[in-house]
Amino acid sequence: MLTEKTYIVIPAHNEEKSIKTVIEDLQNSGYNNIIVVDDGSKDNTTQIAQECGASVLTHLINRGQGAALKTGTDYALIQGADIIVHFDADGQMRAEDIKKVIKPILDYDKEVSFGSRFIENTSNMPVLRKILLKLGKIFMRVFFRVNTTDPQSGFRALSRKAAQQIEITQRGMAHCSEILEQVRRKKIPFAEVPVTILYTEYSKQHGQNNLAAIKIASKLIWSKIIR
Amino acid sequence: MLEPIQIIIIIFALFALSRTYFRLQDNKISKGEFTLWTFVWISAVIVAFIPQVIITLSDFFGLGRGLDLAILTSIILLLYLIFKAFVKIEELEQELTDLTTKLTIQLHQEPPAKSRGVKR
C-alpha cells in the first residue's frame, strides 16, 4: 500500500482531548505521515500531537479550518506527498475508512475522492443535522451546480495533481463547498466513497453547531459577490 | 444672511475638502476616490449656500421635501461605504490568512535560531 507517500492532514483547534486517540488510530492503521495543523489553539493540542510523533505546524493566530487545511496541504506537497487526506481531529472519522477513500485515486485514476455519509447511511447522525445537510445539498445544486451525495463532508483525499490545482481560499467551514465547486469547474475526475462518521457527545459539542449552516451559505454567496 | 448651520456645514466641508486634497498628495487615496469625495463636499458647500438647489433636485426626482433627498443620498452613500469597508476587511483577512499559512510553513521548516533544537 502507498501509505508512505500518503499524508494525513488534520486541522485542529483546541482538540487536546481527542487528538491523541486520533493520531494513535492513524498510526495503528499504518499511516505515519501525519500533519497536524494547530489553528491557534489555547490548549495543549500542539504539545500532545508532537509527543504522539505527528508533524505539528502551528498557526500563531486562529484562521479557521479552511486556512489550516491549506497550510497542511501546502506543507504535504512540499514534503512530496502523492496523496493527501483531509481528516478531522475530533474523532468523528475512522482511520480504517482512509483505505476506502484513497482507493479511487490509487486504482481508478481519480484525482479526488470524497467520503460520503449518505451512500450507505451507516452514520448515527442526529435528525436535525441530517435535515440541514439535505438542505445544504439542495443549496449546492441550485447555486453552485454541484451534485454529490454529501457536499459538506470534510473527509476527502486529493492526489498530488489535484492538490496543486485546488486553491482553498475559504478560511472557515465553507471549504467543503469551495473544493467541490473547483473540482466541478476544473473538471477534475472524482469519486464518492461511503464512510461512517461517528457522532459522539464530544464531537457534537465540539463540531459545528447547526447554525453554522447559515454562516456557510452566506460566506459562499458573499464570496461570489466580492471576488 | 447665512444661518449658523449653513456656516458650520461650509466650514466643515472646506476642512474635509482640504483633508481629501492632502490625502491625495500623500497617495493615501486614489484619483477616483479623490473625485468622489471632492464631488460630495463641493455639493455640500453648494447646498449650504443655496438650499434652493436641493428643493429643485427633489422635485426633479419626484421626492416631496428637500430633506428627503438629502437623507436618501446620505443613506445610499453610507451603504456604499459600508460595502467598501466590508470588501476591504475581506481583503485584509485573506492577506492575513496567506501570511499565516506561509509563515507557519516557514517557521516549521527553519525554526528561529533561538528555539532551534528546543522542544516547543
Can you walk through the features of this model?
The complex is a heterodimer of chains A (227) and B (120). Chain A is of the alpha/beta class and 227 residues long. Chain A has one domain: Spore Coat Polysaccharide Biosynthesis Protein SpsA, Chain A. Chain A has helices at residues 19-28, 45-51, 65-78, 98-107, 127-144, 160-165, 175-185, 201-206, 212-226, and strands spanning 6-12, 34-39, 55-59, 83-86, 112-116, 156-159, 190-194. In chain A, strands 3-2-1-4-6-5-7 form a 7-stranded mixed β-sheet, with helices on both faces. The mean pLDDT of chain A is 83. Chain B has 120 residues and is mainly alpha-helical. Helix content of chain B is 79%, strand content 0%. Chain B is built from 4 helices and no strands. In chain B, helix 1 runs antiparallel to helix 2 (31-49) and helix 3 (52-61) packs across helix 4 (66-109). Chain B is elongated, with a radius of gyration of 24 Å. The relative contact order of chain B is 0.06. The A-B interface holds A 37, 46, 50, 55-61, 63-64, 67, 70-71, 74-75, 78, 169, 171, 222, 226 and B 86-87, 90, 93-94, 96-97, 100-101, 103-105, 107-109, 119-120.
How would you briefly describe this protein structure?
The complex is a heterodimer of chains A (227) and B (120). Chain A is an alpha/beta fold.
* Major sheet characteristics of chain A: 7 strands, mixed
How far apart the termini of chain B lie comes to: 74 Å
The best one-word shape of chain A is globular
**Overall mean confidence score, pLDDT of chain B:** 83
List the helices and strands and how they pair.
The complex is a heterodimer of chains A (227) and B (120).
Chain A: E1 6-12, H1 19-28, E2 34-39, H2 45-51, E3 55-59, H3 65-78, E4 83-86, H4 98-107, E5 112-116, H5 127-144, E6 156-159, H6 160-165, H7 175-185, E7 190-194, H8 201-206, H9 212-226
Parallel strand pairs in A: 1-2, 1-4, 2-3, 5-7
Antiparallel strand pairs in A: 4-6, 5-6
Chain B: H1 4-25, H2 31-49, H3 52-61, H4 66-109
